[in-house]
Amino acid sequence: MATARDAGALARSFLADPSRLDVAIKGPQDIVTAADAAVERLIIERLATAFPGDGFVGEEGARSNGEHLWVIDPIDGTANFARDVPHWCVSIALVCGRMVELGVIYDPMRDALYSAQRDAGAFCNARALRVATLTDLQHATFEVGYSPRTDAQSYGRCVTRLLLAGANVLQFGSAALGLAWVAAGRLDGYAERHLYAWDALAGLLLVSEAGGRVGPFLSAEALTAGNVTVAAAPALYPALQSALIGD
Ligand code: LIP
Question: Architecture of 137-245 per CATH?
Fold first, then answer.
């Protein structure tokens, strides 16, 4: 937990002096900053010291094997971060075998620390989290994420289906925070056609430990190739899932 907080503080220190950000283009609508690399290094240094022998998969390139695997997104919502839009976070998940055992998401701009352990519940700053109990699509608010890694038309069709069903659709630009907000009952569901494991795993554990329904994500390939992501209040999951993959 302290590692996530310190990682968030380090990222914020770059915002205090934008000349240090050194933004680089990774691909369409996909950027990286010097902060992403520095924060990933800090997290790995800390966890490698505390858990010698564990392995790492990090968005900024860290790859090492171990019985237990830490899956790290140093800054989720980098596009927001680089524009000083205060909606980004640090996301860390621990994978043992094929199970996500621990998920931590830290939102430094709101000082909100989300955490979940398998079969031990989900919390934000020690407050227990429960997903929404809403059953009526006509009153639902979902976040549907988009990136040019996926087809724009199918994104448009997904959003249109949900709007025609009477739901509200938002996009804030950080999948990990979106999933944390589903776990906190602020949103009724999150969906995205393609996310990487470092964007999704911690948030998916938070949602399932908060009583939500999540789609299958983790497989050997998905650890680096990514997968489709759907998570929602149980009664609304089928509608969100079919809207996303309905084409
Ligand atoms: C981002 C996700 C977002 C997705 C972006 C990207 P990043 O993560 O939070 O939902 O649409 O393509 O994957 O790159 O900021 O860590």
Answer: 3-Layer(aba) Sandwich (3.40)
pLDDT at 198: 98
Residues 6+ apart with CB under 8 A from 72: 40, 43, 44, 56, 57, 58, 59, 62, 91, 92, 93, 198
Q: Would you list the domain boundaries of the chain?
A: 2-128, 137-245
Residues in the chain: 247
- Alpha carbon of 194 to ligand 1 centroid (Å): 9
74 lines ligand 1 (CB under 6 A): no
Residues 197-224 pLDDT 10s: 999 999 999 999 999 999 999 987 899 9
Q: Residue 230 Cα, ligand 1 centroid: separation in angstroms?
A: 15
pLDDT in tens, 88-128: 999 999 999 989 999 999 999 999 999 999 999 999 999 99
Q: Is the pTM of this model over 0.90?
A: yes
Question: In the CATH hierarchy, which fold is given to the domain comprising 2-128?
Answer: Fructose-1,6-Bisphosphatase; Chain A, domain 1 (3.30.540)
Distance, CA 7 to ligand 1 centroid (Å)? 18
Q: How many Å apart are CA 3 and CA 92, to the nearest integer?
A: 10
> pLDDT > 70: what percent of the chain?
100
Regarding the beta carbon of 77 and ligand 1, being less than 6 Å apart is answered: yes
